[in-house]
Amino acid sequence: MEMTTKIYSVGSLDDYLLQVGRVVMVDNQEIAIFRTSDGNVYAIENKSPHPKGGPLAEAIVAGHYIYDPLYDWKIDLITGLVQSPDTGQVVTYPVNVKNGEIHLTL
Ligand code: FES
Fold first, then answer.
1. Which residues contact 33 (CB under 8 A, 6 or more apart)?
2. Whose CA is nearest to atom 3 of ligand 1?
3. CATH code at 46?
4. Are 69 and 55 in contact, with CB atoms under 8 Å apart?
5. pTM score, two decimals?
6. Does residue 41's CB lie within 6 angstroms of at least one atom of ligand 1?
7. 67 is in which domain, residue-wise?
8. Does 1 fall in a domain?
């Protein structure tokens, strides 16, 4: 199967509050967008890597980490890696901000 990537606009930076996750639907996928206190923007799959899953957009944000709202797993927004003692990884998507507009690559 051929893999293709596409760039999607998900609105302007001003549409996203600092440290508050927001869900966007892109290409039939639920993606949680986080704007951290240092101004960076991260996009991850809105699905916890926990065996029971669950959404991540309502996670508590601290630095570039989030805390899974259901299981309190600590997840690095940069790598998607679940921090010890738990293990797993959430899918991350490249984000590009240009002229105040947020673009995701899927
Ligand atoms: S808090 Fe932004 S890079 Fe660590």
1. 10, 16, 21, 22, 23, 24, 41, 42, 43, 95, 102
2. 64
3. 2.102.10.10
4. yes
5. 0.91
6. no
7. 7-105
8. no
Rounded to the nearest angstrom, the distance between the alpha carbon of 2 and the centre of ligand 1 is 35
Nearest CA to ligand 1 atom 4: 64
Listed as ranges, residues in the chain with pLDDT below 50 are none
Residue 14, SS3? Answer: helix
pLDDT of residue 45: 97
pLDDT on residue 28: 93
Q: Give the count of domains, the chain.
A: 1
Taking CB atoms within 8 Å and a gap of at least 24, the contacts of 84-89 are 86/50, 88/49, 88/50, 89/49
3-state secondary structure of 63: coil
Buried b (16+ CB within 10 A) or exposed e, 16-48: beeeebbebebeeeebbbbbbeeeebbbbbbbb
